[in-house]
Amino acid sequence: MDRRHLLSVAVCLLGLSTISLAQQDAAATAETQDSTNGNPPGTSPPKITKQSPSYFVVLPKQPVSIECEASGTPAPGYYWKKDGAVLSMTGLYSMDGGNLVVRRPSELTNGIYRCFANNTYGTAMSEKIEFVIAFADGFKDSESTTFTFDEGQLATIPCNQKESVPAPSVFWTDDANPGNKIPLDNRVSIDPDFNLRFSNIRVSDTGNYQCNVKNDKLRVQLLSPIKEIVVRSVENVEGRPATLVYTPPASVEAFRTEKLRLKCIAEGFPTPTITWNKEGETLPEDRTSYESYGQELVISDVVQTDVGSYKCTAENGAGTPTSFTTTVTVQSTPYWQNKPEDTNVVINDRGVLDCEAEGIPVPRVTWLVNGVPSTDIAPNPRRTITEGVGGGRVEIRDAITEDSAVFMCVATNEHGEIFASGFLNVESRPAEMTDAPKRNEITIEGKGFELTCAGQGSPKPVITWTFQNNPISDTDPKYSIVEDGNTASTTSTLTVSGVSIADGGDYKCVIENGFGSVMATSTVTVRRGTTIIVGPGDEVFVEEGLEVVIECEVDHDETLEPTVTWYRDTGAGQEQLDLSLPGGRFRRARTGSDSLKVLNTVVEDTGTYECRAVTSEDEASASTQLVVQTAPSAPSAPIVTQRSDVSDTMVALSWTSGGDGNARITEYIISFETNFDDLGWQVIDTVSAPSTQASLDLSPWVTYHFRVVAVNDIGQSPPSPLSESYSTNPAALTEAPENVKLDATDPGKMRVTWPEVHPYDQNGPEFKYIIKWREPGDQAWMGNEEIIEYEVTEYEIDVGEMYKELEVQVLYSNSLGPGPASDWSGFTGEGTPTQAPQNVEVNAEDSSTVVITWDEVPDSTVNGQLQSFLVYYSMIEVQAQGQSPAECFPNTDCRVQNLTPFQSYEFQVAVRNGQHVGPKSTPVTVKMPQGESGPVYELTAFPLSDRIVVKWGKPASPNGVITGYHLNISSYDNNNRLGNQTVVPISDAETTTYEVNPAEPDTNYYIVVHAVNGYGLGKFDTVEPKTRPAGAPVKPIVAESQIAPGKKYINVTFVQKDDGPAANQFYVQYKEANKEDAELKTTPPLDLLKGSMITVPDLQPGTEYLVTVVAANDDGETIGDEQTTKTIGGATQAASPIFVQGWFIVVLIVIVALLCILLVLCILKSQRGGKYNVSDKEQQRKGDIESTPLKDEGGFEEFEPRKDNPDGELPRGSQGSLRDSEPGSSDTDSLKEYADGELGKFNEEGSFIGQYGDKKQRPTEDTDQSGAAYSTFV
């Protein structure tokens, strides 16, 4: 017997039991009620207000409550029925109010439950509640199974799950990803029976699989026995047409408002794809979706039009597609069109309850009265009950008390049944208020408001309104009163329109009938309206890509807080702008502002923008038109027409405009290209808009194409399409050559140059240049040259006479004859001066300036026009390459400035005319006097607590003979006020260290140092050390890296800390570590200004020692922590020294070989480069060899060793070794580096003096100075 048959039996048993109870209830009711006076005021039959769901799944053995609540007056009592029989509240069951408590749910408690609530006026019944125990039965198979397939075959692996309540979730896992669902696609899928299907199995699918059944109610997950899949490899898997291996039934019923699911699974190789369609119709796009990678068609919210034939088609390209068609019909469980409503009637009144239901098929409607079928109750002449297909009615006429009852409408078809209850209550009760107007109503001036008042009573009450205790009549146009209701209740709505401040006050609603009256008051407050006082304006313009702000400022009642929202309409309808979207283009202009900022505007942003301010009571809005402007669109192709019969070079151009880019077009740019490709596009005219035509004057003998570009305030449009070609005829030349240049070249020669005349400007064929020349005053031309290549723009005239004045004429000519000529004059080329200045004298004016004089040079030796005299000079000790000569002009004093003091210079003078420089004079040598010395090198200070050591180097630029140094020492306070100054003269040039002793602890010092030479004090340098605080030194910290043990010694390095009292000296205490009576020994102290490393001698190899560092100064000593270290050697065989290990020797040999190769390459490069430089130098000076000074015809002295330098070292200022040229290669490092653990860099004495201070340029060993880089001349 199926579940539907069981359900029918249960309904029958329930009906019989209900009839018996209802008859008993009716008898009891008749005995206690008066049939003429009606029910007491406020009474009503029961009504079920809450119940458990109709399908109630519970956990076994855990107490559970089946809910049931009902309203009614008096309060109803409750009882329950299971499978139609009244339950006894003993053993398994108990009551909690109306709820039924099942103490220990089991299979015995499964069944159909119903709750009944009754009082004197009727009985209400809940809907059926199916009570089910959750369970999960596992799987039909209990052993592991092996499935063997050939690669490419269809494979189906059964799940074999048993029943589970509630319906479980099922998925598959494999041993490749334990605990994770296997990935599904159109090749691997799960059918509706939960079997795992492979449309074509692969070798990679080999593995152990399990079906997982998960019951969320029980919180259990069951695993099937292992399904082992073995896939045999096939060398060549043959293609197999798609075949449908799972399809829905040929006929499927879909239920209204639910989901229709149709699934097809196909096998084949390659993997087939599934497509769905509805024959003769398109699938509903908004309700159609696909699952399982297209295998399953899902149509949601089924409607009647979804009936029809649905076809799934599988194809994979290996054969003919295969398909299957299923027919879908739409069915429906019953659903309500109109449910019965609770009805209150008064004595002798009429009451009606209607019930209408729909479904497919249409359901039959029946009635239960107090839970008893209408066919089983006693007849009542005042009551008419109608039942039938699709609807029914209960009607009571001339009602009396006994007619009060609960009526349940039951709609049933083959797919199910639904229930709806409504009571009919016969009563007489005073008026009561069911809905009072709001106690406080707020509205806005100029608007309106509504007040609603509702009441009920038996008989039906009447509602009236007053304002400030004065009756309100709906004849006043300000007021409108609308009433609604039924036989027992009424609703009245008062509408007040166009309110002003005077309309604020108390409005009263009065509800009354013959048994009583009630009243409610609503106080109405009228607020000031919201307005936008600074609106966005009519139009806002912005260039595309920029940002724009649209202003909006809101004025509102101080008690109302507005919410400001922006909307826009760009032509597709209004949309709200989200100003809080991260990274969005729309945002508030500033914090606290209601104005809108639009970033990165685009033309599509053009539209209407609305600022809308909304309060709880009103709203206001203002809008503007945002215009985003961009460059125009391209105009049409221009049309060319000739505008003169006289000349074809006069044309008219016309075109039409494209789009303006939301910005007015201001002008059009007309450009052209010609048959001369090298010209490209040229602009010929600009026309102001709105004109779209232009008059142009063209060049003869040219073929043109034209295009037009539109311009607005934003930019230019793309070019228009090209015009058709237009050609002009040849014409005579009308312009004389301009910008002709005459340049003197070689002696007796003149070069004539002129601008190139492009073919575009030649006006016709056979173009040429004509050049003529003659002496001034002559009528006849000495020469006449024609040049037919237009690219040739120069010609050299040779008359054989130096510095000869000529008149030159240049003109253009074409096939129609020559054009106008242009006349010019100039001189031929000059020769080289032949005589050097004589009796040159050089006198030092000061330490860096000399004055040079010489005898007047004869004009006949200049061979041209005298321009100036060139003074060549160089430092004797350093032959500077590429030194520019000084230039002195005739009839002026000749000075050379910015020379290096205390250096010997050699001077020579040469004559320069307009083109050439003559020979140099005999060299003259001058020794410059001493000058101001440069600052000392690398001035540093080393402060301790009671003394400061100042150290420096000789100046990089001594500018004389250094005879000593000058120190100025002073302290200063925190306000930078200097104290007493101490002047320290040092007369020994080799003394470069000074100790300030004593010095005040924790004090700032300002120390100035000058070098002294024969000139006097040199430039100064300063250092500002601060002494360390007084007191015993801070505790020394000795890191492991500061202790370096040897075989019979230990080196201990002291690192001065950056803060606290400084140590002046330190010593080391040590003893053997593992010897109880070991003697504690002490090394002699080491002054930290002389060194920072102590060697502990005479130790035993391979022995551990305890080492302690003691820091000391004049205020005391501080002992550091004891350290343990071990000397090398001893009983353990020492490792071989690295320098005797084989691998080290091999590496050393490789390094030496590479260095030798590198040395040879450097020598070869040096030799080749030297020769190249000299040769290049000679080539540069070819024809003017006198410009390079020679020493006794010995060649280039700058490439020879100094005579006073027998070792061949390069002179000062020459390119030396990398070591000499990089001051950064100093061995000194800062004390900060030592504090950071850098212990590998000390000076020769092991001292850390010299570890402070900035690095400066290191001076060279001698006092030679290079020449000044730049000099000025007077």
Automatic annotation (TrEMBL):
Signal sequence extent: 1-22
Start and end residues of each Ig-like domain: 46-130, 151-221, 241-329, 334-425, 430-525, 530-627
Keywords associated with the record: Cell adhesion, Cell membrane, Disulfide bond, Glycoprotein, Immunoglobulin domain, Membrane, Repeat, Signal, Transmembrane, Transmembrane helix
Presence of the UniProt keyword Disulfide bond in the record: yes
Gene3D superfamilies registered for this protein in UniProt: Immunoglobulins
Domain Fibronectin type-III: 634-731, 736-835, 836-931, 935-1031, 1032-1135
PROSITE patterns: FN3 (PS50853), IG_LIKE (PS50835)
GO molecular function, one term: cell-cell adhesion mediator activity
Residue span of region Disordered: 27-49, 1173-1274
Cellular component annotations (GO), alphabetically ordered: axon; plasma membrane
SUPFAM superfamilies recorded: Fibronectin type III, Immunoglobulin
Name of this protein: Neuronal cell adhesion molecule-like isoform X1
Compartments in which it is found: Cell membrane; Membrane
Gene it is expressed from: LOC110986966
Amino acid composition bias (Polar residues), ranges on this chain: 1214-1228, 1265-1274
Compositionally skewed regions (Basic and acidic residues) per UniProt: 1174-1210, 1229-1244
BP GO annotations: axon guidance; brain development
Domain of life: Eukaryota
Annotated TM spans: 1142-1164
Membrane topology: Single-pass type I membrane protein
InterPro entries in alphabetical order: FN3_dom, FN3_sf, Ig-like_dom, Ig-like_dom_sf, Ig-like_fold, Ig_I-set, Ig_sub, Ig_sub2
Organism: Acanthaster planci (Crown-of-thorns starfish)
